[in-house]
C-alpha cells in the first residue's frame, strides 16, 4: 500500500471510497501544486493576439490538434483581422484557409455566422460571459469556457477530453457528462485554481496521462492517484525477459 502525502489519506490503487470531502479537496490542491511545479510553463497552446483570434482558434481546435490550428491561423488572421471582415465574407471565402483542420466546411460556416452575430449584437467585440458566448453559432460550453478563462471573463473549469479522462482517473469525478465533471472539479478546487487547474490537466493528459497508456511510472502525482479505470499490469508480471541461465560447462 502506498501512503498518500496527506494525513489520513491512503491509496492502494483502488478508488478512495472512504475519502472525505475535505480530504479530497486537500488532495486536489496537492495534485495541482505538484503538476504546477512539474509543468511551470503550462499555458494554452493556441496562438492568438486578440479575443477574436482566440475565439476563432478555439473553434478551429475541435477535432484538430493545436499544432495544426497554429499552422493555418497566421494566414487566416491576416486575411480576416476583425469580426466585420468575417461577417462580410462567405463561408467559401474562409474554407481555403482552414481546409486542413477537419470539419472545415462546418467550421467556416460557424465562424462566419458567429462573426455576423458579434457585429450585429456585440459591436464586433467578443463577450466575456459564458452564457452570451454560448449563444454564438458553433460555440459550445467548452469553447465558451476556454475563451472566458483566458480573457478574464466568467470563471470556469472547461472540460475537454483530457480533463474528463484525468478527473475520472484521479478520482475527482465519477461522471461522464462534461457539465457534471466540471461541477465536480469546481467542488474540489477554489475558483482561483480553476483556470490553471484546467490547463494543468490538459498538459498532463498530453504529456503523461495518455488516453491509451498512461505513464504512471513517470507521473508526479502517482502516489495521490487512485488510477481509476487504469489497467495495471499484473503485480507478478515480469518487466523484462529473464536472463538466460549460464550454460553448464561440459
Ligand atoms: S498517469 Fe497514472 S498516476 Fe498519473 S494521473 Fe494518470 S492515471 Fe494517475
Write out key terms for the chains shown.
250 residues, two-stranded antiparallel ribbon, 50% helix, binds iron/sulfur cluster, mainly alpha, Endonuclease III, domain 1, 2 domains, disordered N terminus, elongated, 2% strand, Endonuclease Iii, domain 2
Fold and architecture overview:
With 250 residues, this protein is mainly alpha-helical. The protein has two domains: 105 residues, Endonuclease Iii, domain 2 (Orthogonal Bundle); 101 residues, Endonuclease III, domain 1 (Orthogonal Bundle), CATH 1.10.340. Helices cover 50% and strands 2% of the residues. The chain contains eleven helices and two strands, in the order ββααααααααααα. The chain has a two-stranded antiparallel sheet with strand order 1-2. Strand 1 and strand 2 form a beta hairpin. Helix 5 crosses helix 6 and helix 9 crosses helix 11. It starts with a strand and ends in a 43-residue tail after the last helix. The N terminus and C terminus are likely disordered. Iron/sulfur cluster binds next to helix 9.
Give me the secondary-structure topology.
Layout: E1 2-3, E2 10-11, H1 21-38, H2 51-60, H3 66-79, H4 83-87, H5 91-98, H6 104-122, H7 130-134, H8 141-151, H9 161-169, H10 178-188, H11 194-207
Antiparallel strand pairs: 1-2
Helix pairs in contact: 2-8, 5-6, 9-11
